[in-house]
Amino acid sequence: MMIFPQPQSLELLEGTYQLPAALAEKDLPGFYACIKAGVPGVTLITEPLLAKEEYRLTVTDAGVEIASACDEGLFRAATTLQQMIRQEKGALPCCVIKDKPALPRRGYMIDISRGKKPRVATIKMMIDFIAALKYNEFQLYMEGDCFKYAAYPKETADFDCLTPEDIVELDAYCKARFIDLVPNQNSFGHMYTWLRKPDFHHLGLFEHEDEVPSTLNPLLPESFEFVCNLYKSLLPYFDSEYVNIGLDEAYGLGRYQIEEYCKQKGKDVVFMEWLNKLNDHIKENYGKKIMFWADMIYNYPHSYHMVPKDAIALEWGYELIQSQRMTAHCIAYRDAGVRYYVCPSVNTHGSLTSRMDVTTFNLRTCAELAVEYGAEGYLVTDWGDGGHYQQWCWSMQPIALGGQYGWNPGKQQDGESFKAEFIRAAEDFTDDYFFGGAKVSRLMYRMANYYLLEPERLHVCTMSAKQLTLPLNETRYAHLFDMKDSGDDFYFDNVTEYVRKVMADIEKVHFDERLKREIRVTAWMIELGSEVCKVKLHPQESVDKVDELVALIDKILPEYIELWNYRNFEMGIARSQGYLTSRREELLALKA
Fold first, then answer.
1. What pTM did the predictor assign?
2. pLDDT tens digits for range 34-58
3. Is there a contact between 176 and 240 (Cβ–Cβ < 8 Å)?
4. Terminal C-alpha separation, the chain
5. CA distances from 209 to 90, 201, 205 (A)
């Protein structure tokens, strides 16, 4: 019997008890309602001393007994019981399960602002998945062009996105699964979408008028009014007592129009002024507490006393080094009395697949630090940087593993196992949930690590995925590498051959055809990116490959568009589609 997330304590006993297998065929809220209303053979006991989500589930040959203090605990017990019934077809092994979460808040956040805006049905599918994993928080990350803001109706008049009615529907859907739907609206940095519009450009921090700024000017009264209008349009539709106001990567802070002001007062003080101003407005007008990304404050521990009392700092980091640096930050937050979460990532942005060796380390390290140093929550982030061109199916295994770590991180990493049992259990859960029990997740894990064959390592990216987004005449990527220094075709030949081999193995497995298509188109895109890297190494010698690569792009495009439109609003695909069409034109130009 596999219970996932694995409980804190499971003792198997002799014997079995039979419950009707059909009982578990309802959706999770329906199953919970049946259990709460009363099912023959299932006894409910109220034990007020148990924690909110704590439960004890006992199976004997006389029946099933569930002890909990309140509805949250009963719902988590029902989640476990439904999983047991489905696995065992009703013949439950006698056992005693004592279980409760290691962390009070366990969340998943999906970016809906970088092009890909999932439809309501798609978001509900995500909510169902995280509910089965005992998450209790869900966030929809917003920058702009993803919600019908009543204050600025003309900005979203010409395309589909989420409406207030959608949010109300999703809020109720989350509540039925004991999940808190937290609004998430960035309010300082990451404001490109708004600031590139003529009506809002003047609100940004910039040096030249023709720049597209990313950071709001916090000294302009109009900037504050603008953000307040976003809140006014959004927050009334969420019942959560929290709101994530973002504030990460405000790269304009200390520069341009406010450089002198920041020199006089200190960048940290100017940031804290904006943070507190937003906090006071939200608290007074909506009665909510704020969350904010902590990257703008963790280098200024002397300013931690300026963090509002009820605010929650979100400590994020997605790489090996960032994960290790979190230790000092968590200790500092704890010692300063700052409430905080730790926030790992599914790591699919910039890689198409997630780099699973990095991702599993990141998920594990964040959870262990959260428990050891008193974090209040664990938020698994799912970003869409660069147009959100990855398929969501690659997030499934990291989300499952994050569910395990948020609920029960197990013993501290011993330096040898990497908690492989959790990784395998997450794969098994994902296989059962999405693939009808077919063994697909291990093969996806292998494909996700294709980048280990590449000659260079990148921050949150892979060479093949990143180069696919850059023009053929651009060989350098930031300060990290130049394709001209990347050796020869050997490395990328290995990537192409490796991904083709793994995909061939996946093709042999029978499972949901749409999911297989999503995996397949990802394999094609990695292959295309790998071959583009070779073209950049020696463009003139690649002319004879042009027709083959153009044919590959022509195979990818219609499939990519159809898969996108099935799960997401149609508008938003232009950037991702543009990468493919631009590479196609550039390749053909090589032959001219």
1. 0.98
2. 999 999 999 999 999 999 999 999 9
3. no
4. 63
5. 68, 9, 10
